[in-house]
Design brief:
- By secondary structure, the protein is mainly alpha-helical.
- Helix content is about 75%, strand content about 0%.
- The protein has 14 helices and no strands.
- Helix 3 packs antiparallel against helix 10, helix 4 packs across helix 14 and helix 6 runs antiparallel to helix 8.
- The longest helix is centred in the middle third of the chain and has 44 residues.
- The chain is flat, with a radius of gyration of 38 Å.
- The protein starts with 7 loop residues before the first helix and ends with a helix.
- It comes from Rhizopus azygosporus.
Length: about 375
Amino acid sequence: MVKATAPLEISDPVPLMLNNESSLDTPPHPIIGLPLFQKLVPFAVHQAASVYVDRKERLVKEDIIAKLEELTGVYHSSVESLNLPTLLATAEHTTGLPESILRQAAEVRSEGGIQALYNMWEQVQKASSRNANILEEAFNSLDEEQETDEALRSKYTSAWNRPESTTLTRQLVAQGQKHRHTITSAQKADAIVKSRLDTWSKIISILTLTREELEESIPSDDSTENGKSQQDSLLRIKRLIEDMNQHLRIRRDLIDQAKKAANADDISPALLKKAAELTAKSPTVKIEAAQFEDLFIDNLRKYDSFVMTVDKEDEQQSIILRQLNDAYHQYMTGTSNNGSAKREKALQNLHQAYLKYKEIRTNLSEGLKTSTRVRTNDKES
């Protein structure tokens, strides 16, 4: 009689299962195939992947992109504080006007100039006064209603059993007080805007002149030739700005490269490999996200070059800004005794007048919007 003999895979399956799970690269067993849960990713691996993604995104956004954008903002603020764009435009045009000033003047003229600002101011005042009158009428109506209620309550005593006027109108009074506060705050802000408008009205008016009149209002450079030291300072400023423009291009490229590197950075295969190593001796070993810390550190080192470049950009910008400041003051020292200083000052004033014009116009537009919003709320109330 034939004796039935069970295959070793059936009689003693545990060693086979352990051997079959020992490596992800092991081909499937010819009889039982792949282990049942071989492709099941441990929860700790999911957690580790999430932790890594958070660290990676924080590193890229805060230590690379945000710092580069902050550096660029500091540079532009520094250049603007020294008024270098106007200085360079002035130096290139000893007569006539820079194109930037001509564009700004054309914009102011097309929008009506200083008269348009005063017209907007009048509109704001009329709207504010109208809102205040509407609100005052509303409060007067509430006061009259309360007086009538009190008179009738005194006359009919207990027969007048309706709720008191103050109870019925409490919400309306609260809304009215809120609107009154808004109007008062807006009026204070309007007064500040009016003060700025009066202060800058004269020089803003210059921007509305014709091109010929505008050119005549600006002093020409009466020096026959700028000194060599002054020319050297000007060339140095131009060269430094060109260097910084190159750095700005490098920063834009660096940000793009960092984003691409982060998008392509998939740590999942490395995590799975590490998890397989941790469970090689026993599939029941508990895996914790903290066990992948060394892997995180190693994988994040790919961003070290980006961070180092950011640090270098910081150092280079500090040097360039310091040199720009020195060159600027050297240039200004050379212009203090000739007509170019007066010319530059006049052009700076026109540029500042344009900025104030835009600021005041924006403030007045916001004032009109506020008045319209308050009036709408008053009607709804």
